[in-house]
Write the structure tokens for this entry.
Amino acid sequence: MKYVVVEPDETLEPGLRADLLDTWVAATDAGGAVGFTAPAPVEQVAQTLDAALGRVAAGTDLLGVLHDGDRYVGMGLLVDNGGALHQHWRTVMRVIVHPSHQGTGAGRILMEGLRGSATDLGLEQLQLTIRDGQGLERFYEPLGYRIVGRHPRAIRLTPTDYRDEVMLIRDL
């Protein structure tokens, strides 16, 4: 499994979009907390992916991907918040690993790759949010993230199923 940073001019690489869309849809359908609920609304996922790839192509955000030797099987973004006062940190978003590679250490490789990319950019801190109720803290805390806040009922999965959004920070 190899972590690679996608350069802005590589966002149109054949297979990249298709593999990342497949990974995102598969993760959603497997119950992953990746912005949508199962069954994955493929068109909405595709639109969100295209918007993210557009920001990478423009040089605004950084896209780190996992390649298993055959295809792209994971992704994560370092998202620029755009403000001059926020240039020392980025938001980690869309951390997704294909279900066929979950539990193999691929997520750790992806997160360590993103940390290395952040260090290369001279950043001082990373921030991410997770959906409460899935035990994701157990993945992120050993990687150096700590919980700094909680937005109660920020995520509505169904009309009666609300989850907190939990904010985590990692100093670099």
